[in-house]
Every structure is written in C-alpha cells, then in structure tokens.
Amino acid sequence: MKDDLLSGEHATEELGNLTTFAIETRGDSFSNQLQSRLVRELTRIGFRYDAANPDLVISVGGDGTLLQAFHRYVARLGQTAFVGVHTGHLGFYADWTAQELPLLIEAIANRKYTSVIYPLLRVSVTFKDNKESANYLALNECTIRSAEGLLVSDVFIRHELFESFRGDGLCFSTPTGSTAYNKGLSGAIVHPSLESIQLTEIASINNRVYRTLGSPIILPKHHHCQVRPVDASGFNLSIDHIATLHEKVEEIECAVAKEKICFARFRPFPFWRRVRDSFIG
Ligand code: NAP
C-alpha cells in the first residue's frame, strides 16, 4: 500500500481481477437507462452480472445511491470494489458523469485501476438486559438522538468521562462523511487518508450541570468513544440513511472500524479537488 501522490489517498496500484459486477441505481428513469446500458455493454465484453457476488459494484445516481450500495454489500467489503456514476450533481462517492460512460466502460474493460481505501465507522450498542449487542458499519456517519426529547448522556473517551451532554444529539462521522451531515454541523472536512472519526454536537445546551466542549473533536483510530444514557435509555440511531430505534441501551461505542471500503479509481480525482468543485465551484 502506498500514499498515492496524485490523489493523496491510501491506494494500492493493481491490475484488477474483475469478472463480476452489479449495479445499484437510484431508480429514476435516467439512472435505470444507464443501468441497462452498463449491463448490456459490460456483458458484451465478457463481464458477468452477479448481484450476489460482485467484484465491482457500480452505483448510478448520487452519493445516497452509493450509501445504499454500501449497505447492500457490507458483508462483502473485502471482495468488492465500488465506483459511482452521478446522474445529478457531482458527488463525493459518485464522480463519473453520464456523458463519461463510454470512458468508464473502456476503463473497466482494461481492468486497470487503483484501489483507494477509505476508513469506516464502527458502532456497537450494548443493552441493559444482556441482549446480544447490535453492531453497525457506517460509511458517512452515525447520529445519536434520544427516543424521547432531549438527549442526556455522558460521553467517555477510552472509558474516561469526558463531558456530560444535553441537547439534540451527537454525530460521529467518517472522513468521507465529513462532507455530508457533519459539514452541516460545522465539523471539519477531514482527508480520508486520516484514519479517524469526528464527533460533532447537535445543538448542545450548556449550563452549570451540563457542559460540553462545544467544538468538534477528531479521534484517532486507537481512541474509541462511549455514549451512556443518564436517564432515558431509548435511542434513535441513524446509520447513514438508515434509522434504527434501540430501547434499554447501556452504551453506544463508536470507533474507527477494522473494515474498510475499497473504491476502484480508474483515473485520479484528488479529494481536495472534489471538495473545491462541490462546494466552491
Ligand atoms: P438525502 O436527503 O438524499 O441526502 C442528503 C444529501 O447528502 C444529498 O444531497 C446527498 O448527495 C448528500 N450526501 C450524502 N453523502 C455525502 C457525502 N459523503 N458528502 C457530501 N454529500 C453527501 O438522504 P440519503 O440519500 O438518505 O443520504 C443520507 C445522508 O444524507 C446522511 O448520511 C447524511 O450525511 C446526509 N444528510 C445531510 C444533511 C445535511 O447536510 N444537513 C442532513 C441530513 C442528511 P446526493 O444528492 O448525491 O445523493
């Protein structure tokens, strides 16, 4: 593995061993047309459509579509690479345009790509009644809110009390998720070569009892963070676009995951250029 000078991301140069593919589409008619075209042309040049065991997953839509694809294939992260085509505005995960489809097909046919590896967030929920823990992987972020009103929780870093939080909620994001909801919470944009997670507050209330730092913090991969309910123990958790409700929660732990996502990069597109093109123009 080397740090790719062009992309500034952790990357492995390889001649990929791609044989099977699958497509995740946003479902609108234009994205579906592109899907049919990709299936037709990739099959014609010898690739096999295999929705269960794809070497390559092509998402056609937006970043939201890539999030769906990630969760569909989360059990195959070690064997699957992702690439995104956007049919709306430029995305962070979806960086090929519909007009560039012939170029993408040619690049896939040549099977020459760089694997770009991005960190993920691990979320583990443990319960008061010894129920088996619930574990999730997020590509963008996890938000934690109370199931009833304000979130009142103690926040620990490496099991040491850091602060007592009272407010709307907490957001833990990955570096690639730092341009999503985290950015709306005034979190920093983090380069995905930094294996880290970021904690941002969602509307904290500060007084003599509950006092929080008020600034986003970035935790390295060996620092995990625990959130423990103070009174109510029902939590609404969002894992990317997926909402979950958990009762009788003892603790929610967030950390950099051991698992990673691999993107097939058929041409360089440096992260900071994507940030500039998306937000500055
Ligand atoms: P959605 O309402 O369709 O997506 C919200 C927007 O977030 C879309 O414009 C989406 O881009 C964009 N987005 C997703 N991941 C991104 C990333 N890594 N960097 C920059 N923009 C990104 O909702 P959804 O499809 O269910 O997606 C859920 C995601 O929406 C969540 O993970 C959260 O990060 C994001 N979100 C953001 C805000 C906010 O910024 N205030 C609020 C709620 C949710 P596309 O249009 O290309 O799909």
Please tag this protein with its features.
281 residues; alpha+beta; Rossmann fold; Tumour Suppressor Smad4; disordered N terminus; binds NADP nicotinamide-adenine-dinucleotide phosphate
The arrangement of helices and strands along the chain is EEEHEEHEEHEEEEEHEEEEEEH
The ligands found in this model are: NADP nicotinamide-adenine-dinucleotide phosphate
Q: Give the mean pLDDT.
A: 92
The total strand number stands at: 18
Q: What characteristic shape results from the CA principal axes?
A: elongated
Topology, pairings included?
Elements: E1 2-3, E2 10-15, E3 20-25, H1 29-44, E4 48-49, E5 56-61, H2 63-72, E6 81-86, E7 94-97, H3 101-110, E8 112-127, E9 134-138, E10 141-146, E11 151-157, E12 160-173, H4 181-184, E13 196-204, E14 217-220, E15 225-229, E16 235-239, E17 242-246, E18 249-265, H5 271-280
Parallel strand pairs: 3-4, 3-5, 5-6, 6-7, 6-18
Antiparallel strand pairs: 1-2, 2-8, 8-9, 8-18, 10-12, 10-16, 11-12, 11-15, 12-13, 13-14, 15-18, 16-17
Helix pairs in contact: 1-3
The structure holds NADP nicotinamide-adenine-dinucleotide phosphate.
Description:
It is built from 5 helices and 18 strands. The chain is about 20% helix and about 45% strand. The protein has an 18-stranded mixed beta sheet that branches. Mean pLDDT is about 90; it is low at about 1-10. The chain has helices at about 30-45, 65-70, 100-110, 180-185, 270-280, and strands at about 1-5, 10-15, 20-25, 50, 55-60, 80-85, 95, 110-125, 135-140, 140-145, 150-155, 160-175, 195-205, 215-220, 225-230, 235-240, 240-245, 250-265. The chain folds into 2 domains: about 1-120 and about 260-280, Probable inorganic polyphosphate/atp-NAD kinase, domain 1 (Rossmann fold); about 120-260, Probable inorganic polyphosphate/atp-NAD kinase, domain 2 (Tumour Suppressor Smad4, Sandwich). A hairpin with a 2-residue loop joins strand 16 (about 235-240) and strand 17. Bound molecules: NADP nicotinamide-adenine-dinucleotide phosphate. NADP nicotinamide-adenine-dinucleotide phosphate (NAP) binds next to helix 2 and helix 4.
